[in-house]
Amino acid sequence: NDDLIDFTDLFPTFAEAAEVNNLDKYGKIDGLSFYKRMLGKSDTSKQQLFFHYDPHPGFDTLARWVRDKTYKLYDSASPKRAGMFYNIQNDSNEIYPLDDSVLTTEEMTTKQKFRHILDTMETWPESPDIENAFVQNITDSSVVIGATIISKGASALTERGSTIDTAGSRPSLLKNRFIDNAVGLGKFTQKRIGLHSQTEYNYSLYAMNSNRSHSTNFARGDVFTLSKSPVQQPHFLNATLDDSSVTLKWDDAIFPDSGAAKAGYLLIYSTGIPSLKQYANAKPPEDAVLNGTIVSLNATLLPKLPATTVKISNLSKDSVYNFLLVPYTCNRANTATYNYLKEGALTTTTGVLFKAITAQSLYFITETDLVQLQNRESKQKH
Hints:
11% of the residues lie in helices and 33% in strands. It is mostly beta strands. Strand 22 (322-331) and strand 23 form a beta hairpin.
């Protein structure tokens, strides 16, 4: 028997086998009984099947498609095969999608019928949306994540929360899940604790309403926990000026064992406010610095960073410079994975850089000249 059957057909089949009628009292029934077909009798069977496959909501596993015995069309919402149309009888491994230019009239009609089914089958009716996800207060063992929940329907929220797990593990809504005590709409935050230092995590924020529909717009991302704070931070960051350069000095720092192999300092300066991106961890310095010029410094093997002196030359005259010193560590598995310890950052500001000018001539000035100069005072510096 090659009838098309799916999971929704089991309930009406068992009901008919048990001679149970009146299934309308259970609500809308999607399935068709195949009980008579098991007995070799003729009966109505499905002409096509609709699938909504989303085993790990919020992690790009969604796949929606319609198929019959010969053809299969994926929804545009399916990330890996969006909109692809296959002859699964000739191409069971779905290697060669069919372009519209090669379709027969009959095949085009089939595709259009499948498309109509996909367009009219809602993903999650009245499901809430999650927007404006954020990550903040990252430490070596915790992180605060949050978002804003917006309702798209009349159904009230019954649950909201988050999941978090180490990167590369199989994502699951149920793994390491933390359910929030409140179930209201609007902004909500959660602090996830008990994490390992110097580790990348995947997280997801979800909401669920009274019909158990998960949010179709999960807030998800990754976060890199900090290394453990240095046992000893530098106590000072001093800047000494001369005519066109500045010399910076700071004392040594000592780091604990935190899964890192090397440690160093990211030194940046700017006439504005030097800063790192809010979510800079794991990025190389050139991608992490938001504002400022990077000064190259060599990393050193843990646990100790020695006292350092750096001279920066060719600075602009008549400018005030701000300096930012940020400790960082490098992951043992990949020394290019940076982990910035912004909590230990030190800052200092220089004065105005200037070069003394020796007077070459002495001029006498009249009272008239002085009045003229005073009239120009608002436009010029003397």
